[in-house]
Specification:
Length: 249
Amino acid sequence: MEFVQLQKHDGIATLTLARGKVNAINGPVVDQMTERLKSLEHDPEANSIVLTGAGKFFSFGFDVPEFLSFEKPQFDRFLTAFTDLHTYLFLYPKPVVAALNGHAVAGGCMLALACDYRVMVMGKGKISLNELTFGASVFAGITEMLRFAVGSANAAKVLYSGSMYSAEEAKTIGLIDEAATEQDLMDAASKMASSLGSKYPPAFTGVKSLLRKTIAEDIMRRQADSIWEFVDIWYSEHTWANLKNIKIA
């Protein structure tokens, strides 16, 4: 099935997460998004990317009920693929704008943070890294991407509290860059994608690399250990009991 839909128009490639009501992330979603991004990397018809979700959610994060059936090595392989994807997205040579059409929680928030610019719908959606509220950890990569976006003090606040932020609240701390009405969301995202995509590509890629490559290199050194720590905590008795209560519509 096609869980990551692709459309191209006026130099902008739009990737839409489309998996059930909440766009839960699993292995096929990660594989398809990686494939789509690689196909667009050298596509002359795509100067920039907009990443959004179908329906009322951007993504509610990992498909927890599916992963409850995974053994540790299988889950570790998924996490490695997922973290490889968001590191790839963080360094992607073309501009990537996240159009957050609804809730962007946990893994959904992680994908958004890897983008260059985030526009979020006002009123309905919430954005959060809420892992600590159900006893899970995060990854080295996401802590550094979060710190890059919001600064160290706000990163600690976001992760320690696990708070669900409205678009207006998220904008005040830098978790998103722009809040928009439901009607204006895609226009705002497309406007920024078009603006960034109009830059001379080698210059844009070079500046993006200067801003992010050192961070990504640090992430890559620490990522594997953080994944194993994440797995150990995920399968602990305390966290496992909480995970069993998470329902994906």
